[in-house]
Amino acid sequence: QYIETRYVPLGVICAIGVHFKPTLARILGPIYAIGEGFALGAISKGYENWQNGIVVQAVGATLGVTLVTFVLYRTNVIKVTDRFKRTVITATLGLMLFYLVSFVISLFGGSVSFLNSTSLFSIGFSILAAGLAAANLAIDFDFIEKSAKAGVPKYMEWYAAFALLVTLVWLYLEMLRLLSKLNRR
């Protein structure tokens, strides 16, 4: 748990900085990538020591979900409308608030027990969270496509890459959690 949350402030600071000042993405993006690389390496090692083979499964699942989401987006099965964006962003903010409250509770010795259990409710919650991450991928793909067509300034390429990286990191972590629950069931 300590390793997983140790790099959170760095990632949050970079994400907030890029959100409010997109021109900083080319500086904060690599910093975020390095910090998250260390964090994901440590988290992955912990999961792998606990459940042999889970990292390969999570990487494969993340790549698979990313590819399927991209194909569904490109074939217009998923249409990223303003309503879709509002719904996904609102749900994402709600989920992040829930994770923040859960983190604060853990600082005081408590826990939100269903997050780590293997109950059907917990597994369903993890599927929902991974699905929300995939929906964010569709928003990222849409942003990249529309930005390229609009000829936005060069720094927006960094901004788009940063957004995509954040979403992929989140999706990978959700896949690790989900697979861990399924492997323990």
Offer a quick outline of the entry.
The chain has 185 residues and is mainly α. It has helices at 2-6, 8-20, 25-50, 54-74, 82-107, 120-150, 155-184.
Please, could you describe this protein's structure?
With 185 residues, the chain is an all-alpha fold. The chain has 7 helices and no strands. The protein has helices at 2-6, 8-20, 25-50, 54-74, 82-107, 120-150, 155-184. Helix 4 packs across helix 6. It is globular and about 50 Å long. Mean pLDDT is 91; it is low at 1-5.
Largest sheet: none
Instruction: Let me know the average pLDDT.
Output: 91
Query: Structural class given helices, strands, pairing?
Result: mainly alpha
Helix content: over 70%
Give the secondary structure arrangement, pairings included:
Layout: H1 2-6, H2 8-20, H3 25-50, H4 54-74, H5 82-107, H6 120-150, H7 155-184
Helix pairs in contact: 2-3, 3-7, 4-6, 4-7, 5-6, 6-7
Keywords summarizing the entry:
single chain, 82% helix, 185 residues, mainly alpha, 0% strand
